[in-house]
């Protein structure tokens, strides 16, 4: 059975509700069984059910999955009020008001939120860990659900174990979708298990702020939680084996986040790890690889995740391995399982590890199941014109946001990716907090940076990174441009409204124009050479000197390598 590492800090949360138990299932044969009721599982189930198929979700814990109960939703419910407070503290009027409130309360430091109010808001966003309303909504869409632990016991056969009675029920379906998500990867550290530790579950659901929180791992979980607890007044020590925090994002973006974390007092230790842990008098004593010692109130393990497939009988299916992710094809069908009846979506297939990509895969999976049920799958594949049954068209446009302060949002390819893929590309970067920008109207002292990766020759946008407060909502325009195959010249005509953070797009287009001469031999219409687009005219003097007429020439001009 899968190991449940549940919080001792929230004994009030019941992870195994006593509703919708397997014994209440009246039907044994289904069109589709979805194992896991997280965002990916639910999206697939809803699409199949609204398409006319009978669908059963088997959910081992709380419907809504990790995302709704222990990850995205509660973590963002903690981060968003902190972001609002930080914005309020950096514009006139609200800044003074916050300061006088803090003085009246007698509280010092950066903490501009009411702790109890914050935790209550987080609990409300997590629906107080009550999945009843979610189950009712699924029922309204024609999806049946049962609470139990699913084991795959043969082709189309699923055994559901009841956590409470220990009994089990066998159900069958034409298609089985594994959407069991992921669980934290816990490194083998001497004394860790005996000492006890926080996983992301405890970090996002805690009702207390530890005096000193040690965080092991500086990826997305580690940096987001360092942001939360650092801003709530904990002393935070953030430890990573790597040379820098956030190794998945470009170096300069990670540096901006690291600088900001340090400003809130976070102690970042790089190129080290914890060798030994002991709990004494309630405190955590950690010995680091460089032989230094730390004493903290809690230790959060944020060292990555792995597919949650252990203990669910996968070895009974030829081609699958327990505890490993399930490899899938472009339609989300398990590649090693013959006869195309088993699918894997979301974190379970190891492709993307985000909610939005899991839900996107879910729709592709459901479209495939529906097309097979209607007998149109082969026709759609052969025609190649129904792209909804394949993920290949988005493979190079995966977006993600790390909700630190500043936020980092990225989509598509980095320059490193393009080198690996033998694509000729260049980076274009702009400072979005400097003079000539209007980000001061968003907040005083705004710090921000943006980068595009552009294909040399065609000028097509391949990748984008935005750093700064509020950039999460800027990203999608770049995703649209990448998926649509747009060039920076075409984006010249996408005029951002004034004064908004979207003006960063204009800065990027201007910078592309300024750098154009270095990348391309620009030839105007009817073979006339376009002047004034090269670095000599604009680049050295700064991007803002590029004249609009020259930009028009660039946009209208054709390019030869
Ligand atoms: C702290 C944190 C913050 C995050 N923030 C974000 C964010 O802001 N944005 C974002 O896009 N992503 C975020 N993620 C990632 C996101 O949570 C996952 O990518 C997402 O939850 C995956 O969805 P899923 O449906 O594949 O799996 P899950 O949400 O994990 O759901 C899987 C479900 O399957 C159930 N299950 C497992 N095994 C069985 C079984 N044998 N039988 C029956 N049921 C079973 C589980 O109980 C669970 O309910 C975050 C992750 C963490 C840890
Ligand atoms: N906003 C979001 O979209 C969001 C937020 C949180 C998590 N997530 C998802 O959840 C997944 C898991 O996040 P995560 O932060 O746990 O994993 P991660 O892979 O992003 O980062 C883990 C980090 O821990 C480091 N590490 C590993 N072992 C270590 C050790 N023994 N000592 C010190 N450092 C060690 C790794 O080098 C890595 O940098 C991510 O892939 C992400 O997609 C998404």
Automatic annotation (TrEMBL):
Domain FAD/NAD(P)-binding: 31-350
UniProt superkingdom: Eukaryota
The keyword NAD appears for this protein: yes
Keyword list, A-Z: FAD, Flavoprotein, NAD
Pfam families per UniProt: Pyr_redox_2 (PF07992), Pyr_redox_dim (PF02852)
Alphabetized InterPro entries for the sequence: Class-I_Pyr_Nuc-Dis_Oxidored (IPR050151), FAD/NAD-bd_sf (IPR036188), FAD/NAD-binding_dom (IPR023753), FAD/NAD-linked_Rdtase_dimer_sf (IPR016156), Pyr_nuc-diS_OxRdtase (IPR001100), Pyr_nucl-diS_OxRdtase_dimer (IPR004099)
Record's keyword annotation contains Flavoprotein: yes
The Pyridine nucleotide-disulphide oxidoreductase dimerisation domain, residue ranges: 398-506
Family classification: Belongs to the class-I pyridine nucleotide-disulfide oxidoreductase family.
Name the UniProt record assigns to this protein: Uncharacterized protein
Species name: Knufia obscura
